[in-house]
Write a structure and sequence with these properties.
binds magnesium ion, rod-shaped, alpha+beta, binds adenosine-5'-triphosphate
Length: 454
């Protein structure tokens, strides 16, 4: 950035210097030419007014140094010339300054001389007797004008360039300094950049910084939680197997211990399964493999699968609704349903009810899982979707919970662009609603309106 800014400043400077030189030379040169013509004019008028233009008077007077006086007759022939032999001179009637003098009374003209660095300036005036009197003078042209100036211009240009280089350096520095300062304060929330234009940029970076810090904290927390969760069943497995190994355990004990080992290893498997699922959801953010699914059909399968567990908990499992089609990932929808339903059964009261329903609301398919269970206290409601968060640790563990179920649900719901809503009252029950996004596709909506072909 610094180099580029510097280069731009230099380019600007050089352009400015060149343009200034060019225009001032042009103006100056124009003034010079006007001055030469004006002096010719004065001399011509002096000659005219004193009557000194008569041929024989002219022949006797010597013209002022460097001036050439010519007298031209009405037909264009030269009747007198102070510098040349008139016998050899051609007809001057076609010269522009003379033509102009004949027609308009006076004429002026500048012509290139034979020598490279000179121009000839002409001024002609028509006399009362019809002749034209012309005075000419050789003077420097642009080239001769420029030559002596070149060294001065070069020195001036170099000095200016030097000054501008130093200024460009400091200017660049002062422009870049706040940006460098900002780079040093990226993580400082209170830092204010002097450039208003940089604010969105700084905001974005700071937000990213916060996100990175938070996600690294979450990762650390998660790792700690995972280790902790793995430790309990592993400690149990290790303890029971040690007892069996030592031979102290009686035959009945061994059977019981084997049962405990079995339970703990199942729990480990479940934990690892859930963790793998979560990390899978975390890392895959590409296209989701979706298909057209009948939510009601999936809910029925889920209810069938959990029927046994419901009976075990003395809970009635009900299903209501109609066919509803969504474009979604089958595995994830199954997971969502299974997790919500098994929560509703496990955190229920004996004799309680669980109601799963699927229906359309406007253009959205909605899945509702409602129970008459223990409910979730207000202060825990926003935390239950966190990983490993459990309201009642002992109850969750005794029913085999890892605290990852709702975290997986939340993730899967987000991946589908769906929304999740929670209502719960301690002692009354809990209701969780998942609103799927508008399918957007006409054919899906049409299918929702009628029984699908089977
Ligand atoms: P997992 O689902 O991994 O087996 P879990 O059920 O304990 O374990 P989550 O499904 O994430 O974990 O639920 C988190 C906590 O939210 C639960 O421990 C429980 O305290 C509370 N909770 C979830 N669903 C309900 C419900 N329907 N009624 C009452 N409390 C619930
Ligand atoms: Mg659960």
């Amino acid at each position: 950035m610094r180099k580029k800014l510097n280069a731009h400043f230099m380019l600007m400077t050089v352009t400015a210097i060149l343009l200034t030189v060019f225009f001032s030379l042009a103006v100056y040169y124009d003034l010079f030419q006007k001055e030469v013509i004006s002096s010719l004019k004065t001399y011509t008028h002096v000659l005219e007014s004193t009557g000194a233009f008569e041929k024989d008077v002219l022949e006797q007077t010597k013209p002022v140094d460097g001036l050439r006086v010519t007298l031209i007759d009405t037909d264009g022939t030269v009747s007198f010339d102070s510098n040349a032999n008139i016998g050899r001179m051609d007809n001057h009637g076609s010269r522009p300054e003379i033509q102009k003098a004949f027609s308009e009374g006076e004429g002026e003209e500048i012509r290139r001389s034979a020598t490279l660095d000179k121009n000839t300036y002409y001024y002609a005036v028509k006399l009362d007797n019809g002749q034209v009197l012309r005075v000419a003078k050789e003077a420097g042209n642009m080239f001769s004008f420029l030559m002596p100036m070149i060294p001065i211009l070069a020195v001036m240009g170099l000095v200016l360039l030097g000054v501008c280089m130093v200024m460009a350096h400091f200017l660049t520095k002062s422009i870049v300094a706040p940006v460098e300062q900002m780079a040093l304060h990226m993580d400082d929330e209170k830092y204010e950049t002097p450039y208003k234009e940089m604010e969105p940029f700084l905001d974005t970076i700071q937000k990213q910084h916060r996100d990175i810090v938070r996600s690294s904290q979450m990762r650390q927390e998660f790792t700690a939680n995972v280790s902790h969760e793995l430790k309990t069943p592993l400690t149990a497995i290790s303890g029971y197997s040690e007892l069996i190994e030592s031979g102290i355990a009686t035959r009945e004990d061994t059977v019981r211990f084997a049962g405990e080992i079995h339970k703990s290893s199942n729990r480990l498997l479940m934990l690892i399964n859930d963790i793998l699922r979560l990390s899978e959801l975390d890392t895959s953010n590409g296209e989701l493999a979706t298909e057209r699914l009948d939510l009601y059909e999936l809910a029925r399968k889920c209810a069938d699968m959990l029927q046994m567990s419901a009976e075990k908990h003395n809970v009635t499992l009900l299903l209501a609704g109609d066919s509803c089609y969504v474009q979604a990932n089958r595995e994830m929808v199954e997971e969502i349903m299974y997790n919500l339903c098994s929560n509703a059964i496990r955190y229920n009261v004996p004799g309680g009810r669980v109601m799963m329903s699927v229906n359309m609301e406007a253009d959205h398919a909605v899945l509702t899982v409602e129970d008459t269970g223990i409910g979730i206290p207000k202060e825990d409601q926003k935390r239950i979707f966190e990983r490993f968060y459990r309201v009642d640790k002992s109850r969750s563990k005794s029913t085999g919970g890892t605290g990852l179920g709702l975290a997986i649900v939340k993730h899967a719901v987000a991946r589908h662009g769906a929304e999740i809503g929670l209502w719960s009252q301690v002692g009354e029950g809990t209701r969780i609603r998942i609103v799927f996004p508008d399918a957007g596709e006409k054919d899906v909506r049409e299918l929702n309106g009628r029984e699908p072909d089977r």
